[in-house]
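Why predict the complex rather than its parts? Because the way molecules touch one another can change local conformation, and only a joint prediction can capture that. The input here totals 764 residues.
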Amino acid sequence: MRIFEPHIHMTSRTTDDYQSMYAVGVRALVEPAFWLGQPRTSVGSFTDYFDSLIGWERFRAGQYGIRHHCTIALNPKEANDPRCAPVLDVLPRYLAKDGVVAVGEIGYDSMTPAEDEAFGRQLALAAEHGLPALVHTPHRDKLAGTRRTLDVVAESGLSPGRVLVDHLNELTVRPVAESGCWLGFSIYPDTKMDPDRMVALLREYGTDRVLVNSAADWGHSDPLNTFRTGQAMLAAGFTEDQVRTVLWDNPVAFYGQSGRLVLDELPGFSLAADTFAGNSVLRGGRAG
Amino acid sequence: MTFRLGYGTNGFADHRLADALSVIADLGYTAVALTLDHRHLDPYAPELAGQLPELAGRLDRLGLRVVVETGARYLLDPYRKHHPTLISDGREVRIDLLARAIRIAAELGADCVSFFSGSVPAGLAPEHAWQRLRAGVAELLPVADRAGVPLGLEPEPGMLVERLDDALRLRTELGEPSALGITLDVGHCVAVEPTSAPDCLRRAAGLLVNVQLDDMRPGVHEHLEFGAGELDLAGCLAALDEIGYTGVAAVELPRHSHAGPELAASSIAALRAALPWLVRAEQQVRQRPEAIASLFPAAGRQLGRASLAPATDPAGLIGGTADDQARIRLIGALAAAAPDRLAAELETLYRYGDDAERRGVLRALTALEPSTELVTVGLELVRDAVRSNDLRLLAAAVGEFAAGHLDQHGWRHAVLKCLFTGVPLAAVAGLHRRADAELARMVTGFAEERTAAGRSVPSDALALLDRLDRLERKVA
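Output of the joint prediction:
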């Protein structure tokens, strides 16, 4: 099974996770920019994070044979903090970088005017930079938040085919499916979706425009849940082609709209004795 | 620096000159090919002297570079098109017109004056025609020399000088004078040349003073809009970029004045679509310097990241990479467009840059005018790069800029770090100029430490020590 993990926060994960993911077939991933659990206090904190997403984390993933891409944005939660909102002005610098394949995560947390402003501006940035948009749907008041999200997307002029609406469930899937946007489902150990419920939704809605992710981060989450969903699909009678559609072809088609995916296999990654900015991740240093 | 796209005023014959220039500039052209004609800057008009400074000011305000063309149809003879020529009876009239054109070009600050040879008149032997042509051009060369405006001889289908080879032969016979360049119409190349238009441009490379752009079909001398003939437009623009042409390349559609503005608009759209990415990016930076923020990161995606010398320098540590080279050019465009903001923008590009962008900034420092501000910022960036342990960043930091400006202590430590991390010393500019006894002492210590640890000493280090040692003995 070859897997494109379309949503995972590797910054919060260990090298063991990279190894386990590679072992089950993950060869490429997208790490969306989000909040850190601990609130940020300045724009500088964002730029250090973005630099890490386009540099260090990309290098780290490469050492384990996984192609790393990212999305860049001001997340909805921190859009409400006046110390953080000015990061909107430096986003264009980052949206032009190699490895940046979408604007995201954007959308709503508590549906405040500040979130409206950040969401609208970032949808416009996506159009301007020729990038698709990854939209997070809120944890609370989810159905209303999802409907409002779709209204804002419709008004933005960005075509629904360039928008992925994420963290959907049985209650929010229908309006998104009808909108023409791509549908993202996060498979979590306890909350959001689980592999069996996901299989039931795939039966009902089919595999078109559906992406499955682990959304693993610093909370209780599991980077192998994407793989487990693939297994659950096979156990439920889906074909290998259908599994490939959901776990590889769909994320490649969606993020491929950026023109910036790099998917060829990393050459001899497991033996790479390289260093990043002088940091010898593989201990022992260079020969000679 | 790259070439400038322009439009010929002979495609706006039904417009007042001032209006034509405004439309051309509004559409985004940055140059104009000005055909002197009875309606456009009549070279015989009594009020010409007063018109010239005004026109020069207008061109300057509109940001239009200019070349002067002399292909007006009925300027000299109301009955016979293009008459008299340099080889017909009355050729002194043509010589006088061209001399006037040269003086006008000088006053306008034009790049050149383009001219054609003329058709061989009935009854005149071709060798006599050739002698007349050569004599006429020879008479004009000192005028062009004095004015500092080169002539551009344009091969024209059906005329004595019909192909590039004819023009080159005349140049050779005249002793390859610097005041005689070549004007090439790429449409004419399609119509009459044995090789492709891009090949003709490459052959004319160092001699090109003016280029005319239009489509054409083989064997038919009819100026067509882009796409209507068989011209490889993208290939021509890529060839101009490749040969480093920095002059004017202007659309030549003299039979389309009835729809001048429409053709000028559709032509620039076709040109933009056909431009090599880097050329277009340079134009965007010149027009809107802040565009560099999104173009600079895209260079690797557009042009690749290969070493410029893959066989001898696979990682591009010594000579850099394709994306480095593109970024150096983008910064060159920025330096020309916004010199006062250059140092600050370089710092921003570096600070927000990924590793490849940082290397591009460092490698660009060498080619820039070293103003106090630029040197201050450049040194900060070089010191930042030297602090890192990233081989490629370090290699990009120890170029000519560091050799010229980094303090001796900092420079020695940069060299030592190259040895330590495995950057070949061939990447260090000015090594032999700046290496001194203190560096020898440091490198000796490094070699001793390596030997004590049972590790090999890089051959670069040994070679450097050997050289410094011999120098010292020579001094002693």
